[in-house]
Amino acid sequence: MPETRFRHIADRLVSEYAELPPGTKVAGEHEIAERFGVGRAAARAAMQELQRRMLVRRIKGGGTYTAKRIDYMISADRAPSWSRTVRDAGAVPRSVVLSCDPLDLPHDVAVHLGRAPDEAGYRLRRRSFTDDLPASWGDEWVPVDVLPQLPTAIRHESSLHEILRQMAGASPERASSRASIEVASDEVAEGLECATGDPVWLVESVNRDAASGRLLCFTRRWIRADAMRVVFELGGSVPSADAPG
Amino acid sequence: MPETRFRHIADRLVSEYAELPPGTKVAGEHEIAERFGVGRAAARAAMQELQRRMLVRRIKGGGTYTAKRIDYMISADRAPSWSRTVRDAGAVPRSVVLSCDPLDLPHDVAVHLGRAPDEAGYRLRRRSFTDDLPASWGDEWVPVDVLPQLPTAIRHESSLHEILRQMAGASPERASSRASIEVASDEVAEGLECATGDPVWLVESVNRDAASGRLLCFTRRWIRADAMRVVFELGGSVPSADAPG
DNA sequence: GAGTGGTCTAGACCACTAC
DNA sequence: TAGTGGTCTAGACCACTCC
Hints:
The structure is a homodimer. Chain A has helices at residues 5-17, 29-36, 40-52, 82-88, 107-113, 150-153, 160-167, 186-192, and strands spanning 25-26, 56-59, 63-66, 70-74, 93-104, 120-130, 133-143, 172-183, 199-209, 215-224, 228-234. By secondary structure, chain A is of the alpha+beta class. Chain A has two domains: 5-66, Arc Repressor Mutant, subunit A (Orthogonal Bundle); 70-232, 3-Layer(aba) Sandwich (Chorismate lyase). In chain A, β6 and β7 (133-143) form a beta hairpin. Chain A starts with a helix and ends in an 11-residue tail after the last strand. At the A-B interface, α5, β8, β9 and β11 of A face α5, β8, β9 and β11 of B. β11 of chain A pairs antiparallel with β8 of chain B. The structure holds a DNA duplex.
């Protein structure tokens, strides 16, 4: 293990920042360079190391802040709801509707929902936050006949899960889901307010009504890897080490 | 979108490298700096951008080479076998046994396997390759009574999946599995021959015999994110856009 | 306007790899 | 031994955010 300057600085800062609550503003590059008596390149390398380890969030012109990753659990027996999932992890969820347009279902979406291409649907585009930090961005596709009143309903209740329960009388559950790590394109980076090329999750899910099996919606959502630690569980929850049985 | 120098260089190189077969050696930092008439910092930023996008692999003192990510599919209906999974993705798998020691099952492993702590087991530690590039590293835990002859068998056949089939008469399948993205510790980085702090997958799985349901082994495996694009599927394969039906 | 992170120059030395 | 990527200095200008 090389004993480089920036690595030494990074390790120091890791232990210092570990005791700070998430969201605390910390020293900037210039200050770190001065404090440790190094050039800005070394100080910058140290800060970028912390960012790579997802321990801080850096905002151009704004500063550097301690960060916390939230667990986003995906499994067959958990509700397919952003609010529920985030709340279960101990954070505060929030969603903002960017658009809700009537559009024909694209080919790939129609396939996922077992519909004919060009059937009428709604594309609900939202940005979601954990503790008021942007964490997720993406589309929800709902066939019009599943929920004709979606555009008006979404103005009063931001949880699609709740709307489906209350207005469509459905109990949404995951029919299938697929997750992978990708690299943020320009469009995704803009939606997530991160940099192009940052690591992001792509989660695609099809939800159905638990009682009837009817397919309800298709979700294509990007999630910032520095905001959420997506954990995908197959075949029931794997018991964790500190919760035996 | 900012029109920075390094971004312009990176975009140029992306389109140039796209036509090269994986593993091709490409120009180094110094050469890029000269070619585009920029300082080394700009050239370096461009190369690091390509590395972040997982398009190249860089080896200290060795050079920069074009890279390719292999799909590693995990779902209930796929065989829990490294060789099979890699071969299915069109690459050549290889595994090297680092150690195979008789050890008491640690607490957490015993819990996963439904055993009492401190029962006798084997810890099989291996490094695995795709197209001769290090891609995975981790442990397989097998209770001794499942496969007493494992240490000798693994000397002749590198696939644990095959050994379980042939010598234990079992048909291994995934009982449960759990995947997340983590940041490489020093130990993991050494096992994967990557840098500390690089993004890596952690995949933990419990495998059972399809016929009897008997739990066979527990796997804790780290996978380089730049080598494999892990895709996790829940509730059956989600049909892809170009394979409707 | 002050401070921040992002970009960039023109050098330098080093450890490492390949030959 | 030549070339590579990794680290580092001591400056600089910029766009951006916060106040």
